[in-house]
Every structure is written in C-alpha cells, then in structure tokens.
Amino acid sequence: xxxxxxTHNVYKEAALSPDxxxxxxxxxxxxxxxxxxxxxxxEMNYGCGSTVHARDLTNNPKxxxxxxxxxxxxxxxxxxxxxxxxxxxxxxxxxxxxxxxxNFVEAEAMNPWFKSDFxxxxxxxxxxxxxxxxxxxxxxxxxxxxxxxxDDLKKAVSEMYRVLKPHGRLVMSDPTCEQPMNDELxxxxxxxxxxxxxxxxxxxxxxxxxxxxxxxxxxxxxKPYRILDPKxxxxxxLIYIESIEVAAIKDPMPDDGPCVFTGKAAIYxxxxxxxxxxxxxxxxxxxxxxxxxxxxxxxxxxxxDDIYFSESTFHYDGGGCC
Length: 322
Hints:
single chain, alpha/beta, eight-stranded mixed sheet
C-alpha cells in the first residue's frame, strides 16, 4: 500500500466517524456577523491553522480549497463571496465530499445568507487539479501539503501555481519541524497521513514554493503544534513540531530572487526625516517598516549605525517593503 492510499483510508475513516483529535488547531473559530458554524464542521476541522484571512477575500474572489475536511473553511470562504459557484472544494475522498454536502445542508439551515450552491464540490487530485489555468484568485490548503513526499509536493505546488491568476495567492497552513527525523518516522505512512512525520523545515517549505515560481512569500503565523516523544513514537529524542500559516503570491520573480517576509522590520533613527536606500526603500524616522529577508540583508550590508533591525517574528501582516 502506498502512502497516498494510507492517507486516503485515514481520511475516509475520519469522514465516516469524525475524529476531533486528528489535527489540533489553536485558532479560534471565526465569529463574524451572521456566520454560524455547525458543530459537526468544527469536529471535522482537520487543519492545523487557518487559511481564512479577510484581507485576501475582497472583491468577491474566485476561490479553490483543496482537501475539504468537514467544509468549515469552505463555509467561511463562502461568507466573503456569496455567489453561486464562487468557491470550489476539491477532495479525492468520496466519503469526505459526501460528509461536506450533508454539513452544508445543516449550515444552510443555520445561516439565512448561505446557499449550498455557493460551493461547488468536485472529486479531484491535488497533483492534477481539474481547474483551468489562471482562473483562481485565492487557493488554499490546510494540513495537506506536509503529507506529500518530495516529488508529489512539487507537483501539488506547481498545480496551485498553474490555476492561480497573476498576483493570485495560495494560502496555506502546515506543520513544520526544524529538527531532523529518523527514517523510521519519515517512512511511517500513517504518521505522515496524520500530519506528523512529513513536516519540513521552514526553509525547505519556502523553497518548494519559490522553486515553483511564487515571487512573494508571507509567513503570517508560527505556532506550537505537536510533540513526538520517545514513549509514544519511534524516536530517541523529543521532537517539537510547529504549524505555520503562509501566503505564496503569484507575483513575478524579482531578478534578485523572491521576497520572503518572515516578520522582520527596520527602524531608522538618524538625523534626517527619512532614509532612502536608492533602490526603492524609504524608511521614515522612527517608523518601523516591514522588510523581506532580502531587503534586510541588503540594508544590513550598509553597516549604518542609525537603523535598527528586528529579528524574524514569523508574523507578517502586510505593509512591507515590496
């Protein structure tokens, strides 16, 4: 049995019998005016963060969500669109698609504004999306890409890149791990399906996105997720897994490489009202400017004594240098 078959079976079971502990998100449930989320959707929230951000969802974007879970994030996306077929939900597991359909009927009864036909559910594979080129404004996946092994991950990311419109964005949440994992963990298909042993270091995760062509990467959150301990897992040391929330934007790739925002800022405190580096970055006196890692390195290379640089917070929320 391949790891993808194991994954299919895990989520078939999770669709037929909701498993509240399958994933563990620390995000609060959205509480927006007129939005009520059925309990069953919350119980089937098999993500490790949130991919729903209001600033991504202006002007009725066409949306794609891969790996539907119980439909909770699809419902949240539909809240911002409210158009027939405005959101596409895609999954390879028939039972998960059917569970979502049932959950939408309940959501429709609880939310007068919501109609089930706002969401189009399709069976499909993340590595071969049944979606047209350049047709999607916002694509999303939650706790899915970490399951894929290297070659499949490349295919899945490149497929997301293909279907997005220019300047469209791929919004994701996945577990990451900075510690090495032994081969027994890496090759355990069930632990991979459970969103544990496929976790990559953040730098490797970002590289997979930029290799596909995404010119701008925003790391929006980094949070504690799980522990793999020697008593319960095949490891000699304690392994700490985090979850990150990331947006990859289909901007043109800059000549000098991608803009990766990890939550760094620069603050100019010199004698003038501002500092201009001559290549498009203006720092107003005592006003922090969010900067990508590339700009941070370039400014630090100037070795000025009147600019302060913060460390990466791994929380970026816009307003940056690029």
